[in-house]
Amino acid sequence: MSKASRQMGLDFMLVDEVEDLVAGVDEVGRGPLCGAVVTAAVILDPSRPILGLNDSKKLTEARREKLYDEICEKALSWCIARAEVEEIDELNILHATMLAMQRAVEGLHIQPKLAMIDGNRCPKLSMRAEAVVQGDSKVPAIAAASILAKVSRDREMAAFELIYPGYGIGGHKGYPTPVHLEALTRLGPTPIHRRSFAPVRLAYEARENLIEG
User: Which CATH superfamily, name and number, covers 3-162?
Assistant: First the structure.
């Protein structure tokens, strides 16, 4: 196997035909109480290997930022997409995630022959799709997608920290940490909180009862 078809233990030969265009797809933000769920789709160029690709959660922030720029520069095509808080509340988080993944793949300027999706479910796509459990640790294109999605969402959470101070959003990224839950109880939900999620719904109801009382 050539060096171009292998990167840091992640194997391009997981696909049936290496010459076919393959998109890796991943998401970030299913678990948080606030903010959009962000997805990315990436078609890597085997002739331009990117060293160090791995599950974004296993990389330092500095390493993710560096790889983000390299992926954007070297990938044949990439797209970052999202489903907004309102869509999450309307559809539920699973269906909103599938919608965001669909948008990411459809946003590629090159259509792949195969989309490899991190996890155990695939969105409805116009091409063949394959779910890969822990794919962000196995498939280079999925690892690249996980990095683009996480860096993009983390940057947005840092911006929300300035807009909605007091919640610690820049630190916990919207996840239900004790700091976040305490702030939610004390300050109430913001417009970017997912009201279909139980802790947010309870905080919203408590806030309404306090106002009415």
Answer: Ribonuclease H-like superfamily/Ribonuclease H (3.30.420.10)
For the chain, what are the domain ranges?
A: 3-162, 165-212
Handedness of CA 190, 194, 200, 201 (dihedral sign): positive
Question: Residues 161-186: pLDDT tens digits?
Answer: 999 999 999 999 999 999 999 999 99
Residues 96-145 have pLDDT tens digits of 999 999 999 999 999 999 999 999 999 999 999 999 999 999 999 999 99
Residue 212, helix vs strand vs coil: helix
